[in-house]
Amino acid sequence: MSEKAILGAPDLVVEVLSDSSRRHDSVRKRRLFAARGVREYWTVDPEAERTEVYVLEAGEIVKKTESSKDEAASLEAISGFRTRLAEIFRH
To answer: Which of 38, 50, 57, 67 might form a disulfide with 33, Cβ 3.0–4.6 angstroms?
Structure first.
């Protein structure tokens, strides 16, 4: 951390997908986050009520899980964190 900015990649990025940016968010950004060292990347699809979890392994972000709103998900980047995905999709 410097006086003006936080340096380095975040441990977690959560991206909410939309029709207009779906390909950019789920392909291009995933590559960018891997290159920058983001440890975990979630894509949240509000239309399908589905979440995909990707983690950084050997410099690549790989898909770990895909879950529906009726399931729970854990963060790999933050030990002990677990949430019911219905909370994310609550309207």
So the answer is: 38
pLDDT in tens, 24-39: 777 788 888 899 999 9
Fold of 12-87: tt1808, chain A (3.90.1570)
Helix (H) or strand (E) holding 34: helix 29-36
- Predicted pLDDT at 24: 77
Buried b (16+ CB within 10 A) or exposed e, 27-53: eebbeebbeeebbbbbbbbeeeebbbb
* pTM attached to this predicted model: 0.80
Compute how many other C-beta atoms are within 10 angstroms of the C-beta atom of residue 67.
Answer: 18
